[in-house]
Write a structure and sequence with these properties.
heterodimer, A: 215 residues, mainly alpha, globular, B: mainly alpha, 2 strands, 5% strand
């Protein structure tokens, strides 16, 4: 988990460095830089994406519903969130945030959640709590929190993952990825509604329930 | 009718399944395969555009006033028309290859993408009417008339909402040509 976080940080740093340095370089020097960074990304991609299976996703789904607790399940949930984060990254070019799987696991293990009987209200309470904990950074573990458009993008992603996890499960990872992409499309289509209710647990729970049921 | 839609053992009404993105996407992919096999046209599906179209349709659908019980069947036709309008607007498929000797005097070759979208919407529409309402959809002969398709294509370019009326027309129902994007809970349409 720590190794994956390390590579996430270096990968983000490499992308940022490329964006800053490349325009200032002569054409002859750009290509080798570009090739070196792509080679690094290709190698690190295999490490970055945590391997998850259907049972990990089921545990994560129980966790966000408030039906599972404890460090082991929190680690599974963090692993699934990191998996979703990496899987949905290509959809948003220029997205600069990174999710620390280690910090997410620690935070999820200590999260208060809610004892409400409604799974969607539990999930909404957890989402709002996670939102305050700044799980996403420009570099994992560094204390530079997102603001403005980055914070909004982080909210949208968190909402996507919760809607996905609250939906009825699929049998294969391929189908789960399809479902995750559908959740992304829904979160994007309903972005104004997400923004409007992100601070209100009841409204957020209702929106998540509605969209999860339509996935 | 596609096999999945014939299965009457499924517990929920079909119109409920048709409000779920995974079902809509899966049926769309099956429709692409069926239409491709029937017409010889090879399509490519842009999955991101397809997801976006389905999400867009769902948002529009959820924003509609709920139909009265006696208008539920008519609402199925309206919702299918909304889907047709969305698909035509979002263009989630493109033709990769037309069959050899494709005849432009046939709707399926005159406008292959539009033909696929209509086939998808009319199939789901008919299946829901049959299973949930024990009714029968009787598609119009206009469905095979290329002159109607000329008009269809030209009209939806000018007014995308006319797709809603055209789908009713193709499905053998009385279209609301005046305000096709307004579902009336009274019985005037």
């Amino acid at each position: 988990m720590l190794l994956r976080d390390f590579f996430r940080g270096v990968s983000t740093l490499a992308e940022t460095t490329e964006g800053i340095v490349e325009p200032a370089l002569p054409e002859s020097a750009r290509r080798p830089l570009h090739a070196a960074i792509r080679a690094f990304e290709s190698g690190s991609a295999r490490i970055l994406g945590p391997r998850v299976d259907s049972s990990d996703i089921r545990i994560a789904a129980k966790f966000v519903r408030g039906e599972a607790r404890g460090l082991v399940d929190a680690e599974k949930c963090a692993k699934v969130l990191a998996f979703a984060w990496e899987e949905t990254r290509p959809a948003e070019k220029g997205f600069r945030l990174s999710l620390s799987e280690t910090i997410a696991a620690i935070r999820l293990a200590t999260i208060r959640g809610s004892d409400n009987r409604c799974e969607f209200r539990n999930a909404a309470a957890m989402l709002l709590e996670l939102r305050q904990l700044n799980l996403a950074r420009f570099l994992p573990a560094l204390p530079f929190s997102p603001a403005g458009a980055d914070a909004r993008a982080f909210d949208s992603r968190l909402f996507t993952y919760f809607v996905w996890l609250l939906a009825e499960r699929e049998d294969t990872i391929e189908n789960e990825l399809g479902l995750l992409n559908m959740a992304m499309a829904l979160a994007s289509e309903f972005s104004d509604e997400v923004d409007a209710c992100i601070g209100d647990r009841g409204e957020l729970a209702a929106l998540m329930e509605n969209l999860a049921n339509h996935l | 009718m596609p096999p999945d839609l014939e299965d009457s053992n499924a517990a929920p009404p079909l119109r409920k399944s048709a409000q779920r993105l995974r079902w809509l996407v899966s049926e769309f992919e099956k429709q692409v395969a069926r239409t491709s096999a029937e017409t010889g046209t090879t399509y490519a599906v842009d999955r991101d555009a397809l997801m976006s179209a389905m999400a867009d349709w769902l948002k529009t659908f959820l924003a509609q006033e709920r139909p009265r019980p006696e208008r539920k069947q008519a609402f199925v036709g309206f919702a299918a028309g909304l889907m047709l309008r969305t698909l035509i607007g979002k263009k989630p498929v493109r033709v990769v290859a037309a069959p050899e000797g494709a005849d432009d005097s046939k709707p399926e070759h005159f406008w292959p993408e539009g033909y696929l979208y209509v086939a998808y919407c009319i199939t789901i529409r008919g299946a829901i009417i049959e299973r949930d309402f024990h009714g029968t959809q009787r598609p119009s002969q206009m469905l095979g008339d290329v002159r109607t398709w000329w008009s269809f294509r030209e009209n939806v370019e000018e007014d995308p909402s006319s797709a809603i009326a055209f789908l009713d027309h193709f499905a053998g129902d009385e279209p609301n040509w005046t305000v096709p994007d307004l579902f009336r809970n009274d019985n005037s349409h």
